[in-house]
Amino acid sequence: MSIIKTEHQPRLSAAVNRIQPSGIRRFFDLASSMDNIISLGVGEPDFSTPWNIREASIHSLERGVTSYTANAGLLELRAAISKYLLESFGVDYHPESEVIVTVGASEGIDLALRAIVDPGDEVLIVEPCFVSYAPLVSLAGGVPVPVPTSIDKNFEIDENDLKERLTSKTKALMLSFPNNPTGAVMGKEGLTKVAEVVKDHNLVVLSDEIYAELTYDGDHTSFPSIEGMKERTILISGFSKSYAMTGWRIGYLTAPKPYAEAMLKIHQYAMMCASTMAQYAALEAMTNGREEMEEMIISYRQRRNYFVKSLKEIGLTCHSPGGAFYAFPSIAETGLSSEEFAEQLLLDQKVAVVPGHVFGAGGEGHIRCSYAASMEQLEEAIDRIGAFLKKLNG
Amino acid sequence: MNEKERELLSLIEKEGRMKEESLAKMLDTPADEIAAMLKSLENRKVILGYSALIDWSKTDIAETVTAMIDVKVTPKRGVGFDEVAERIYRFKEVKALYLMSGTYDLSVSIEGRSMSDIAQFVSEKLSTLDSVISTTTHFQLKKYKHDGVIFGQDEEGDHRMVVSP
Question: Model pTM?
Answer without folding.
Answer: 0.93
